[in-house]
Design a protein that fits this description.
Length: about 300
Amino acid sequence: MHVFYLRAPLGISASDGKSGSLTANYNPNCSGRKFSMLPAMIETLDIPVDARPEVSSLREGEGARTREKLALVIPTLCEADNIGGLLNHIRSVLDPVRISYEILVVDDDSSDGTGEVVSAISRQDPRVRLLVRKGQRGLSGAILHGWQNTDATILGVMDADLQHPPELLPRLIAAIRNGSDIAIGSRYTPGGELGSWNPVRKLLSAAAIWVTWPLQKAGLRARDPMSGYFLVRRRCVERVAFQRSGFKLLLEVLVRGRIGSVAEVPYAFGSRYRGTSKAGFKIGWDYARLLARLYAFRFGFGHRS
C-alpha cells in the first residue's frame, strides 16, 4: 500500500483537486451510493502560507484572546432530523461567549436532505458552513477536512446525533483559554457518565481505553481518549500526519500531536434522539488498525505510518 502525505489547500479536495468530497460516517440505510477506496490513508493538516491567520503568531494573553477563533466541525450522514435543532442550540450557547466562531458541517452527500437543512441555515447565518464530500467515508477524514477548511486557532468536533451536549462548549473553551492544549468532553473523568449503555458495551469501551494506556504520554494520559467531543489548539496538530480512515481521531491527536497539557471536562453521554447509529464491525476493524499504527509509531517497530 502506498502512503501519501497530503497537504490540501483550503477549499481543495485532497483526493481529486476539486471542491468537496469526503464523509463522516457510513450508514447503509441512507443511500445506495458506492464508495471508492483511495490509496491515500494519511493526511497532514496544513494551510497555505497566504491563508495563515494573523493570530498564529500572537502571544498568549488578552490581546490574543480577542482574536481567537473557534471552528467546530460536525460530521454528518443522514442527520436531517437532528442537524437543524443542533445548530440552533449550539449558536444559542456560543453567542454569549466572547469568541469568534464558525460551525462547519461536513456532510457525506446525504440523501435525506441534511445538506438542504444546513444550507438554509447558512444563508441566514454565514457562520454556519456546509462542506459536502462525495465517494469516501471515515469520521476522522471528515474532521480533518473541516479543519483544513478553516483558519481558526481552536479546532473542535462534536457529533450530530445530540449525544454531545452543546452546554459543555463554554467549559471546554474556558479550559483552552486557561492554558490547556486540548480540552476533552469526558465520560470517564469524575462526574462523567456513560448513560444507558448495557454492561457489554461498557466492558468493551473500558477494554478499548485500557489498551491505549501504554500509547499515551506519561503525565498527560486522558481518561477518555475515545471521546468524539473535544477542542484542541491548532498549533498542536498542524503539519502532523493523521490517519484519514477510522473513527478515533482524538487518540491519534494525543499520541502524535504536540500536546503539552490535557483538560477533561465531565459530561453525561446522551441517547441518540433520532436516526440510526453508525457503529459496527468496520469501526472496530479501523480501530484495531489504528492501534497497530500507533504502537509502531510510539515504540518504533514495524511500519511507522
